[in-house]
Amino acid sequence: MMVGTPPIERPLYGAFSGRVLAVEPQSAQSRRRLVVATRDPASGRALKIRLNLPDELSDGESVRPAEIGEGSLIQFEARIMPPAAPLLPGGYNFARTAWFAGLAGSGTILKPVTVLEPAAGGEAPLARIRRGLAGHVREQVDEQAAGIAVALVTGDRGGITADDAQAMRDSGLAHLLAISGLHVTAVIGLIYVLSVRALALWPALALRVRLPMLASGLAALGGIGYTLLTGAQVPTVRSCIAALLVLGALALGREALSLRILAVAAFAVMLLWPEAVVGPSFQMSFAAVLAIVALSSCAPVRNFLGPREESPWMRGVRWFGMLMLTGLVIELALMPIALFHFHKAGLYGSLANLVAIPLTTFVIMPGVVLALAADVVSLGGPLWGLVGWTINAVLGLAHWVSAQPGAVTLVPGMGEAAFSLFLVGGFWLALLVGKVRLLGVVPCLVGFLVLYNQSPPDLLIAGDGRNVGVVERTAGRDAPRLLLLRNTRSDYVRDNFQENAGLRGETIYLPDHPGARCNADFCSITLQMQARAANVLLSRSRDIVPERELAAACDRADIVISDRWLPRACRPRWFKADRGTLSQTGGLSVDLSRGVVRNVAQGQGMHGWWHGRKGEMSLQDLIPPMPSSMSSDR
């Protein structure tokens, strides 16, 4: 509550002036993203807003003046919207993210920007270094690998194409694009090893100073510098804190990887960014490290990796087998979190990571650091060639894995009950010792059974009521199909509906479906369920409809869904979800066979980023009040 920023109450449109706080290039999307400090024209309230600045408008007019930078005073015309709540239950909550990031709204610049005052003193030093490094890296590697190379050096992912980003997500390699533990560890580890080896060549120093302590200090400085250079995002800072703790343990001669270090790092993050706990980044990174610590500390693994008299070839086989087992355990630990937040998980992610993680840790990241150092004397060319080739190999692996049948598993939105079972089982397996830890498998299996028996909801209704998804379960078909009320061009809307329903494949435009009856104002479709059929009426336009005709249509329908306010005379047999209802509940996910309604409001709580209904609800909450003029048997 102390750091939260209340959103704007309604959309704002017009001319604004403001100071640019940050500039994020997104060359792959042909735009830049600006964070601007401005004021509400009506109330004068100070606002921090996020704006997309396209390179060109729809008519081809350029809106990309080169002098826009951090500190510039600009004048622009834009439409600014309040941060959006989740489109559907379980969806991405930008409103919550914006609340803690200090953003009161977001929008798009519609006309060319006028620079009223250039940045005083030019760019900030770190921003200038970051931009210079990004340009240098782009010149050293080929165009296909440049986006990922720049992301690894500066944290700027704007140059990664949409196809490459999607392939990395579907193959389970998306974590390689976010600067986190893997990258920070590679940089710090390289500096530590090189420092120890180089300082050991100086006998006078080696005999008087503990080299691990001195090397830890140099590696810590390198890790902090890399964190600042890549923008000091929360995952990077979190990884840097954990790495500094490991370096401290090495300097003190203590065990480098333990549950105590993990607990201290988690406490530090929760102290500084408590909201991170509910996010997938925090959960997945700490779950992965917890799985590694738990696996490496169990007796069978210690015995398997213990020293013994054997050939180097056999030792390599043992370590390779341990690498595969570790990848599998991490994938199993992360899969429930990925299914809960994103409704999908990659089946082949562990196999892809067995190749991609070693390449990133031991080739790409050290190659980037050494190439940048070698560029001081213009000798980095061969190293940049190796880096570019390796990045292209990882991209090729990502595209190949993502194209395989069954590469991505989609499930309907996982409820909190199943997720809690996986959490209880995972913590039990990780934190307890001895044979009793195996009992943690039981809640995991129960959670898997709950997840396996989940079926797609019958209806998905966006919070604005305009976008509606109908799941058709036709006898004789292998899988249900998703029908969309509107033929939207937005990949964001379509992907949200597909992920929430747990369905892949092409969506079908509802008016084109042979079972739908549509006119300019409404569509009607009958859903076949086990016990009976349900007649659903969906509005398509906002034109005036005579109330008597609307009431008659509602009488014939079991369910009515609309993006407008419907009169009390509209009383369907089961329930209606109109604009008034949806403004309180947010998006809905309706399972008619079980009589269960999930809504966005249930996951928001008593927080400032949400202004609708605060509590639980059921189908009875959607049933409209009976008009006094209607008989009681209705």
TrEMBL record:
Keywords: Cell membrane, Membrane, Transmembrane, Transmembrane helix. The chain crosses the membrane at residues 176-199, 211-229, 235-252, 259-278, 284-305, 317-339, 351-374, 381-401, 407-429. It is a multi-pass membrane protein. InterPro entries: ComEC_N (IPR004477), Competence_DNA_uptake (IPR052159). Pfam families: Competence. Signal peptide: none annotated. It comes from the Bacteria. The keyword Transmembrane helix applies. It is found in: Cell membrane. Its main location: membrane. Residues 152-433 form the ComEC/Rec2-related protein domain. NCBIfam families: ComEC_N-term. This is ComEC/Rec2 family competence protein. It comes from Novosphingobium mangrovi.
